[in-house]
Fold each of these.
Amino acid sequence: MRRNIRIVGMGMYLPKRKVTSAEVDAIIGTKEGWSESKTGVKIRYYVDGETSSFMGAEAAKEAVKDAGLTFCDIDCIISGSGTVQQAIPSTASLIQEQLGLQHSGIPCFDVNSTCLSWVTALDMISYAIEAGRYKNIVLVSSEISSVGLNWGQNESSILFGDGAVAMVISKSASGTAGIISSHMETYSAGAHLSEIRGGGTMIHPRGYNEETKEDFLFDMDGPAIFKLSLKLLPDFVEKVFQGTNLSLDDVSMIVPHQASGPAMNLIRRKLGISEDRFMKIIENYGNMISASIPLAFYEGIRQGRIKRGDTVFLLGTSAGLSIGGVLLEY
Amino acid sequence: MRRNIRIVGMGMYLPKRKVTSAEVDAIIGTKEGWSESKTGVKIRYYVDGETSSFMGAEAAKEAVKDAGLTFCDIDCIISGSGTVQQAIPSTASLIQEQLGLQHSGIPCFDVNSTCLSWVTALDMISYAIEAGRYKNIVLVSSEISSVGLNWGQNESSILFGDGAVAMVISKSASGTAGIISSHMETYSAGAHLSEIRGGGTMIHPRGYNEETKEDFLFDMDGPAIFKLSLKLLPDFVEKVFQGTNLSLDDVSMIVPHQASGPAMNLIRRKLGISEDRFMKIIENYGNMISASIPLAFYEGIRQGRIKRGDTVFLLGTSAGLSIGGVLLEY
């Protein structure tokens, strides 16, 4: 079912601390150039005191301003992020507090499907917007990966960057903008291919010590994820287009998760997409977990590569292992 | 907007370890009877090796069986829980794995608004079910609070219990069962009245030590939460009924969050609800975070106090501070 929603404003926040791949090479002790050649990332940002809620609030303020609205017009704040600021309460509540809206009553909650959190939240909330439950929601992804990287695991630690993206999403006039189709699949056969085993109820932080410390850091088997994703993606993409009159050829711009440069290139070729229809921004930001897709979307618009009326395809994989796709008319 | 959904199956799992209030009194070193008099809790359950995904899967299996379905009929698994098993991936993915459905592709994601997680997920997913996106979803709340209690903070530590509840939710024939109205509000003025400051990106587990250890444990100012909730609830309840032809008097059963026995009694009186229309089960389970409301709902049905066609009002507060209400025809 088509959902008549429109992205009416966008904002982002990048941490103050800019980190080159040469700096990352120095951290892990490889020769200069290794990180960039492995990942395609030149620059990423790491927080330097900024919290998730601070970054999320900054992005949200910019998005609401961009929409020509004020927070009086906003009736829901959702954090669609793969990381949280604290175990309790929701990051969305902390963003509301940071925005100075602590007496507003604006409902706040989090949606989590790791790198797909923002896309899953967009997909789900679109039904509520279409039905009139909410008029203007702020959907934020604010991610801090830098605190949880395992610098002993070179292949994963060099990939990530921090930052936040927010969009204001409203109901659109019928047929002008909207989600045309969307689909999600989870294959937990890959649940342990990228994980942080600790930090929840299974391995409580009180169990943190020299022996267990890696349980609290990000652990990824990149090649295995890539292999599983590549196997699943072609059929998945077909399912997203099922029931529409469209095919991948009709899409103006594919906005993929920015997992890793080389993997993105291979997936692009596997799906038969030319470079000009594939938003790849990992070079300047790294993998920003669930903020990657909305940031690439935002960049596409800023660079004039995505215009109103264009058919855009948000597509990503995440820990879980999940695949998510949202086909929308911008 | 009414959403035509029906709860078609229910299941639950309680940990093997049953803990009396006398045992809790011994842990905190008070005289026998103190915990029960403070909380109204006689018995709660603590995990003894069980994980969130194990408990969630057991509850889900029972719910799917109760619905007369198999997992081939299930097209979405959502964890609406205030706690997670691991930092990455989502608990829903881990439940899928535990169910042996790792190659099924059934989409899995988490929704979090602490004690309201299950209710918020029900509220949001109802729009997607109504729109035909999903036919039969499993909505699980699986909570382990026992690992994160601060035994130096008597008032909060004695309240909680572990366990899981799952329901299968399907589309109903128009007008037979459904959500009549729902509403949510968040007042982050109360964001730090109940929290776990650590475990996320702000205070990473690597910072765990003797000095910081309380940051990784549940911290609650019960009287302040109660005061704020009591102030907000009457107006909130009015808003849930706005636009319906119903009032609180038309509700067959109020199913509240099981926050604490004495607080529940005071709120019940403030709202002018008689005991027979108020599902209070905290005595036998403690506060089970977001599993409390679905468990009280389940108990109401098992005890014959809630019947098909009854108007049921799910109502709770959560860390955030959020208030949520779902008015439904069962």
Amino acid sequence: MARKKIGKQTIEFIDPPSIISTTSIVGPKEGQGPLSQYFDIILEDDLYGEDSWEKAESKMVKEAVKLAAMQGRLHLEDIDYLFAGDLLNQLMSSSFAARDLGMPYFGLFGACSTMAESLSLAAIMIEGGFADYVVATTSSHFSSAERQFRFPLELGNQRPLTSQWTVTGAGAAILAPMRNKGPYITHVTTGKVIDYGITDPNNMGAAMAPAAVDTIKAYFEDTGRSPDEFDLIITGDLGKIGNEIAIDLLKQGGLPINKTLRDCGVEIFDHVRQDTHAGGSGCGCSAVVFCGYLYKLLKENIFRKVLLVSTGALLSPTSIQQGESIPSIAHAVAIEGKLKD
Amino acid sequence: MARKKIGKQTIEFIDPPSIISTTSIVGPKEGQGPLSQYFDIILEDDLYGEDSWEKAESKMVKEAVKLAAMQGRLHLEDIDYLFAGDLLNQLMSSSFAARDLGMPYFGLFGACSTMAESLSLAAIMIEGGFADYVVATTSSHFSSAERQFRFPLELGNQRPLTSQWTVTGAGAAILAPMRNKGPYITHVTTGKVIDYGITDPNNMGAAMAPAAVDTIKAYFEDTGRSPDEFDLIITGDLGKIGNEIAIDLLKQGGLPINKTLRDCGVEIFDHVRQDTHAGGSGCGCSAVVFCGYLYKLLKENIFRKVLLVSTGALLSPTSIQQGESIPSIAHAVAIEGKLKD
């Protein structure tokens, strides 16, 4: 058996990588939500001075990485690898940001699970001794996602109540070896693709909930830990409906964790006041909630242990047209503010 | 500095991971090309018994992984991680294959550079001690790529002579620790995004050539090795025109390696007889040429050292419509048939 893998899906780090800095950039709507105070930059205009939403999204990624480097007192040249992904076809936002950043680049796609995917691989690079500094980043943009996946905004289509609102935002986190200060990544649990046969692309919370549950169960089975040890187990973007389904499925599966199970998509918007229906979604959702809110509270030791479980619906417009159901995935990253001596 | 990283972009493995088995599956046209004898499965019909090209492509991935596991005398459950990616939006072919394979899954996107990207990350997982068996796989399909990126085939558009022909095929390679037999991955060099301002999506060889050259130069600078040590330096899918540009650029850059610099896209088709213009392309191109042809000749010690440099054009239809040039990337993987005692 491998040195550091425990159980079937989990890696336990012997020298947990440190997250030395993070940056979160969000759009105007996210800046009016309940987590407003935690974000580093709130855009006044979601075009961010660019002439398209896609370019604005790419600029958010680039600026988030630059600011995270600055906050970590690093030059861009100090960063060994960039792990990045987004929702746009061919990762337009990540690829163009990578062009301008000039770092060795691994492009990732895990739909809205990409933040945990990038954090997982970045942590593996660090703990394996392959790099001194790695940046993990993801983004999404409401308008670029609507244009690509749904209808022209100008049509004014009515959104069903199960639908979610793609977060405009980018988060970037810089990882380094354990000798640096915390928070630290102690474990990563890599998800399998789970598909319960949901076919409604306007109800992705329901499609993704079983994947989140599968990965959460794998994490606790593999580590032998108890959910009670965690201040927070937070899924990526199940939204309100997906969150309720996940709580039910966990209870049925003998792992009742309704108290501490929250969701980035639920936290980021005030659903009634902001009319976002089931909640936020998009790669940027768990990215900015982690890089903004969670990281800061971990750093201040208000949260001691957090399990971030970013969730992704791996459908494509083509797969839906061909009658396929929605395969989903969730990756988990366990983070602790301080390590025991 | 990190333990195993040398130079700016290269990791030198202390215990080079072994590639214990590979499988290549190709379409009928590839099966009529010059490398025909090296492929494990040649499809008679590129629908592969499915009702869409996308599903056929996904089936190729699934079957390639299954067969590679069988050839490695492994059950699918023995494989710790699946690294996969393809050209389709939202990685339809990889994601649906991952659903059926049931392994912890990292989705990757590096356009046609994805085979080297997946081999790189798989090798890092193995050498870092995080896994016993990892599978790296990528695919492409002529018809699914044409449908997504270009025109309906039924239109019969005329193809310019600079255009390339997307390979129908999937390759899968299973990696394990060095205690197993070779071939071995000795180094990985991770590419940066390079963009020389080419804007013609029908001339991707020209767009990608500078990225290939940048990564090849980085490999030799980082390792201090000489191109003469290699039997073959083989790019992913520059095609004939891109290959000539790469040879010129290398010569200008003081690294003349015209004799050993070949290209998977040039090798896979007989361009005159098969009317494929500048050559093959697609994630599947370097995947099947590596998993079929190169792996077998490395195993038989006919090739002793090969540098595989998969190349990707990171454009999207949206980025082209928005007037952007074509950012490109190349990742290199150095493979040796036997290690010195």
